[in-house]
Specification:
Helix content: 10-25%
Number of domains: 1
CATH topology: Thrombin, subunit H
Number of strands: 6
Largest sheet: 6 strands, antiparallel, barrel
CATH superfamily: Trypsin-like serine proteases
Radius of gyration: 15 Å
Structural class: alpha+beta
Shape: globular
Low-confidence stretches: none
């Protein structure tokens, strides 16, 4: 289910939910697929480390991969993100690659953090957009802030069954 206010231009409300045909168990999906906790608070910015994963390209001219990749990124200030992408929306945060980055084909993938060091990973963001300049680590990439949509997510689950 796509967010009812989603706008392609500007990526406003860039979030969707899917209903699985088969309930999730550790036996029904590959080992690289798992569950995440909804965030308990907003993602920390700036200078907070998050991990993005996906099956997208490993470089601008590379094919997508069948092996799940991950990248460590550092969040940047909202002002830097807004200036770089000329954004007016507050439902995004941006990060820059420290060890890897996101690329074409990673959109919709999770961006997570282990906030309290307990091993409990929270879904801080969803890969939304990157620069047309490529997939290098020195380019800002944008993520939908999951925390801003926790109420909507809970409403969809409650009203559509889970």
């Amino acid at each position: 289910m796509q967010h009812p206010s989603y706008e392609t231009y500007g990526f406003h409300d860039d979030i969707s939910l899917i209903r699985l045909a088969v309930p999730f168990t550790k036996h029904t999906y590959p080992r690289s697929v798992g569950t995440l906790c909804l965030p308990t608070g907003p993602v920390k910015v700036p200078n907070y480390f998050v991990v993005a994963s996906g099956w997208g390209r490993s470089g601008a001219k590379q094919p997508t991969t069948s092996k799940l990749k991950e990248a460590i990124l550092r969040t940047v200030s909202p002002d830097r993100c807004r200036r770089f992408y000329n954004l007016r929306d507050e439902t995004f945060f941006c990060a820059i690659g420290v060890d890897g980055s996101i690329c074409t084909g990673d959109s919709g993938s999770a961006v997570v953090s282990n906030r309290d060091g307990s091993g409990r990973y929270e879904a801080d963001g969803i890969v939304s957009f990157g620069s047309s300049s490529g997939c290098d680590t020195d380019i800002l990439v944008g993520f939908t802030k999951v925390y801003d949509y926790v109420g909507w997510i809970r409403d969809v689950i409650e009203n559509n069954g889970a």
